[in-house]
Amino acid sequence: MIGREYAPSAAMLPASMSRPLGEAQREEFLAAKHVGVLSVAATDGRPPASVPIWYDYTPDGLIRINTGTASRKVRLIRQAGAVTLVVQREEPPYQYVVVEGSVVDTIEPAPRDVREAIAIRYLGEEGGRAFVEGMKDKPSVLFLVRPDRWITADFSD
């Protein structure tokens, strides 16, 4: 297992409210299509930068994040070398996974096949390919994130 597991203590949540996801449940949850919220430490006393983002979770346990290079988010990720990704189910039964991870590789430009895989995950085959084609002249970067710590909750019965 990559990363440390953390579950809220009984003092934090009543036992009847939630339980942690098991490793297999967590992997299945991350492999499903969810828009994540990526947070990265900011500089100059500003709060962390948090943005919605598409991601991909690979069978070897890495999180792949592709984005354009001309953003504050990219500059901050390069500086911090670490991110937090929050992925949640927004309808009952609620579930969430929080991943605190280290950036283990940065690939620039992001390979087209990876950009397509991520876009197809969210937009389907035709929409994903069209999206990537429309972005072909825009510089992109791929961050590979290794999970270091997990926080999970499952609010189902």
Descriptive labels:
single chain; 157 residues; alpha+beta; Pnp Oxidase, Chain A; eight-stranded mixed beta sheet; 3 helices
Explain what the structure shows.
The protein is of the alpha+beta class and 157 residues long. It has one domain (4-154): Electron Transport, Fmn-binding Protein, Chain A (Pnp Oxidase, Chain A), CATH 2.30.110.10. It has 3 helices and 8 strands, in the order E-H-E-E-E-E-H-E-E-H-E. Strands 1, 2, 3, 4, 5, 6, 7 and 8 form an 8-stranded mixed β-sheet that branches. Strand 6 (82-89) and strand 7 form a beta hairpin. The protein is globular and about 50 Å long. Residues 9-13 have low confidence and may be disordered.
